[in-house]
Amino acid sequence: MCSPCEAMRHLMAGYAELFKLDSSETRDYSVEIDPREVADDTLATLWELGFNRISLGVQDVNPAVQKAVNRVQPRAMTEAVLDEARRLGFRSINLDLIYGLPYQTPESFAETLESVIEMSPDRLSVFSYAHLPDRFYPQTRIQADTLPSPQQKLTILHNTINRLLDAGYEYIGMDHFAKPDDSLAAAQREGRLHRNFQGYTTHSDCDLVSLGVSAIGQTDEAYFQNNHDLPSWEASIDAGQLAIIRGVGLTRDDRIRRWVIGQLICQFRLDRKQFAEQWNEDFDRYFADEMNRLKPMIQDELIADCGSLLQLLAFWSFCSSTLSLFCLWLFIACIMLLNVLIALLSDSYASVVEIQNAASLKERASIILEFMQESSEAQMDAIVSANKWVHILCPVDIKAREEEERNDDGFDEDDKN
Q1: Would you tell me how many other CB atoms lie within 10 Å of the CB of residue 169?
Q2: What 3-state DSSP class applies to 245?
Q3: According to the model, what pLDDT value does residue 337 have?
């Protein structure tokens, strides 16, 4: 059996035979690394093969939390990998954190955040943990009563956003932060930021080629996913066949809505002229129903309609200033009050309807607070997880969506290429 480094050399040599790999200074070769698996020659080999970006899984530096999730990883181990990567020349080093893990508290996560800020990564991803033991067997080892409450998770998120903004990081969107001089932050300022299944990127109009187990691929007109089952995936590859087991072709309407979603989640605004030039459609005519649904949010000054631009004011405020807890509630309200997001909160349909029917922003905020107090962990994850608002401007009949999800296993949100 070959070593991991030998296997990577063999893999990259195969890619070079099939694809014209970019070797310029502008290339982005990125790899996710578990610091616990890094050998003496791992980073040097990756650098030799052309990789220039890395992402390190940290989750939390607290020993009790690490033990509870079976990921013991001393801070010194992570720092050693960071230092070696910087010495070799890797850029845009990212660290992943997860909040909502066992034994985490607002105080303990604040200490973790200080440790991470001291390590000074170029980028930070801060994900919300969703406890789904029925779906993910390893989570059955985690006792639900050791998890922070939904209210504690909200406090952790609130404190984390404020601390990272105070430390000089910029909010990129969803669950990502970056230093002002990082390429992601520059791309967002210049309107060049994009997002795909892999996350935020500075590269537009790129196909995603899915290779591994459960990987999701993307072209301009389709999405497709490989088999989850390893033996089945291997059998397809050994037979010289694609391992794809499902896919969906996109209509022109799908592509238009995907483009609009991309503008909102990357730039927090939408340019009507740019939309017309891109799609040869009048925005207000094409999205007449959706614009009618947005009127209460415009009246509440969560969205500004400047004629040429639609801007999400709550998110601009969110990016540029320290966030009060009430502003965070408004940030969540901004997400929830979009009519089309009902589909993301199917277990809480009545609550969302009540929020939408409330006459004033104050009433809505009050209902949201009450809802948070009474929500289950799953419902709170649907609200707090920033990934849940990517379906903006996708009108869905809620009952039809529920029936569809019962009959079709579809793409898994947690699957990554």
Answers
A1: 22
A2: strand
A3: 39
